[in-house]
Design goal:
Length: 263
């Protein structure tokens, strides 16, 4: 029995040392979570979490970036052991494992307005009242939160032009809309491409909405223990000061899950 246990321990240690975790992610600028910096290095909050956790496990890690549809297909087919920035859904749970402790961040959304209209446009809940009173929009095909989806299904007058988030900011700045929906990180991302936007646009005070939980999801075609081992090492990493330093480094702030949100 002792010999069998020792053999198993030896096998697991050898597996850990030899194993390379293949992680798929979208080939896009998803700063501050996943992006290529000025030194052409892949980085971001998610990327560095994966690097820290795999290092603690003694694993190597290889990131592969592709268009999002390819990434999800690769997760389903087992081409990737795991994929980052994945929202849980009943459809995806058929081929991917979402463990509570593998939560990376919780997206939160807001409304953006022009600074010069801050005294005019005041957030007064409920949200239904806001979208009825003011001309609002969100990028077509984007997920904001369940409340917005419910309102859209019931005929709320929220426009959904087929544009990117940055293009929608430009439409806001031109006066096309009174307020637009976007992730709380959207303005900082847009500032990299739209000169002077932070001098003209701001978040609407009080308009903060809980959004989607984003995970590192593991393929069900991968070994089951991979997701569990990652979750345990990630849990331990969150107890270290290095985790909070990562959040500060990338300006994650309110998007970092609270301890109770991992339950």
């Amino acid at each position: 029995m002792r010999a069998l246990t020792a053999a198993l321990l030896f096998f697991c240690s050898q597996y850990s040392l030899a194993f390379t975790l293949v992680v798929g992610m979208e080939e896009a600028n998803n700063a501050p979570f996943e992006y290529v910096d000025d030194n052409v290095k892949l980085t971001g909050f998610h990327v560095e979490i994966v690097r820290q956790v795999t290092h603690r496990l003694g694993w190597e890690v290889r990131f592969q970036r592709h268009p999002w549809k390819w990434v999800i297909k690769g997760l389903k087919d087992g081409e990737f052991h795991a994929v980052t920035y994945v929202a849980k859904s009943s459809e995806r749970e058929e081929f991917a494992t979402f463990l509570p402790d593998n939560l990376l961040h919780i997206s939160r959304s807001t409304l953006y307005i022009l600074k010069k209209r801050a005294n005019e446009i005041i957030y007064v809940p409920p949200l239904q009242h806001m979208v009825t009173k003011w001309r609002t929009a969100m990028p077509g095909g984007y997920y904001i939160n369940d409340e917005v989806i419910y309102m859209l299904k019931n005929g709320a007058p929220i426009e959904q032009p087929t544009v990117t988030q940055n293009q929608l900011f430009i439409m806001l700045m031109s006066g096309r809309y009174d307020a637009i929906f976007g992730a709380t990180s959207a303005l900082a991302i847009a500032a990299e491409e739209i000169s002077g936007i932070e001098k003209q646009v701001k978040r609407l005070e009080g308009a903060s909405f809980a959004g989607t939980r984003m995970y590192i999801a593991f393929s069900q075609k991968a070994a089951a223990h991979q997701a569990m081992e990652f979750a345990e090492a990630y849990r331990q990493f969150r107890d270290e000061p290095a985790y909070d330093r990562l959040g500060n480094q990338f300006g994650i702030g309110e998007l970092m899950p609270e301890p109770y949100e991992f339950q």
